[in-house]
Amino acid sequence: MKLLHTADWQLGLRLNFVDKEVASRLRAQRYQSIREIARLAHGRAVDVVAVAGDVFDDNSVGPGALQQAADALEAFGEIPVILLPGNHDAATPDSALERLRPLVADTVIIPLQPESIELAGAEWLLCPLTTRHHRGDPTDWIAERDHDRLRIVVAHGGTQQFAAGVDDINFIRYEALLRKGIDYVALGDWHGTLEQDPRVWYAGAHEATRFREQDPGNVLIVELSGAGALPIVEKVPVASVRWRRETFEFQQDADVDRLAQRLDAIDQKSSTLVRLELGGSLSLEGRERLDALLEDAGQRLAYLRIRDAELHVSPTEEELATLQGEPGYLSRVVTGLQEIEDETQRSDALMLLYRYVQESLADQGRLDTHR
Ligand SMILES: [Mn+2]
């Protein structure tokens, strides 16, 4: 038996922090990647595709999103596809998956209640969430093994106790579950690919949804040779949108050029989101060049998030001399600014003054040429 395990497609994801036009392009990409998954499923001759919850990002998705999902699902043809309701698309009265059902073929299986079904010679134990926050273990209805066929669980929820007190919501006690005689547990909820146990895996989101995720963008091809045998699990990357985290430290102004080269080396910029963490220090002029560079990069990348709280400006002697000019009011201002203790505030204030002085010098130049 060969299974393609995927999860957390989060179709309809809004991506509110991204420019509107880009966000709609990235949303479309989530459907397009489903067609890639279907191509892989046919190429590897898988018997069943299981999507372990959060097919939709939200139950409130409209008819357009439902139709796009239905159209993408056509690509699986005769291969059975299980779409499990997760916490984002729980089988509540407003269930998006329930509304999807009339739009898709009979080969698409949408369990709205916990149930055991026979498919491709195996028993499938489907554990949909029927409420967003299920108090308890969504797999606890599963009985002990009483046959020699494969037993595969498809469920959505957490397996690690992150904080005391909240760990009983959608919480899967996988060790107890495995003791009931389970060959493979296909999980969703955690957006990175993660092996919890040789028989218990998170496939992760097929396309990332945020920068913090660890190793998203894959699906799993799972081979199960028979009841009791350990599964052979292969991770296959499918994402077409990249989310990159970069850090960069400035020691001198010339480093701005190094950063420019590094940003330029990113391929497929229009479908790459970058979170850039900056540190170190630059002169006022260096910071000005950096800002121009970042503005340009931000327009060419799908999205650029800048974290620069640890980047400070330290004016050169020349810059200070230019700012201070003749002894007088401005000179006293600059001296005052340099005494600001908070590094971020001092940097911001000096940059502001620097830009003001640059602009006023430029105006002066324009006036001079008109004379
Ligand atoms: Mn999810």
Give keywords.
Purple Acid Phosphatase, chain A, domain 2; 6-stranded mixed β-sheet; 9 helices; 15 strands; binds manganese (II) ion
Secondary structure layout plus pairing:
Blueprint: E1 2-6, H1 20-43, E2 48-51, H2 63-73, E3 81-83, H3 96-100, E4 108-109, E5 115-119, E6 122-127, E7 151-156, H4 174-178, E8 184-188, E9 194-197, E10 200-202, E11 218-223, E12 232-237, E13 242-250, H5 255-264, E14 272-282, H6 284-300, E15 303-313, H7 317-324, H8 329-338, H9 343-370
Parallel strand pairs: 1-2, 2-3, 3-4, 6-7, 7-8, 8-10, 13-14, 14-15
Antiparallel strand pairs: 1-11, 5-6, 9-10, 11-12
Residues 8, 10, 54, 86, 88, 189, 191 line the site of manganese (II) ion.
Tell me what you see in this structure.
The mean pLDDT is 93. β2, α2 (63-73) and β3 form a beta-alpha-beta unit. This protein has helices at 20-43, 63-73, 96-100, 174-178, 255-264, 284-300, 317-324, 329-338, 343-370; strands at 2-6, 48-51, 81-83, 108-109, 115-119, 122-127, 151-156, 184-188, 194-197, 200-202, 218-223, 232-237, 242-250, 272-282, 303-313. 37% of the residues are buried. It folds into two domains: 2-237, Purple Acid Phosphatase, chain A, domain 2, CATH 3.60.21; 242-370, no CATH class. It is of the alpha/beta class. The strands form three sheets. It has a six-stranded mixed beta sheet, with no helix packed on it. A six-stranded mixed beta sheet has the order 5-6-7-8-10-9, with no helix packed on it. A three-stranded parallel beta sheet has the order 13-14-15. Bound molecules: manganese (II) ion. Manganese (II) ion binds next to loops.
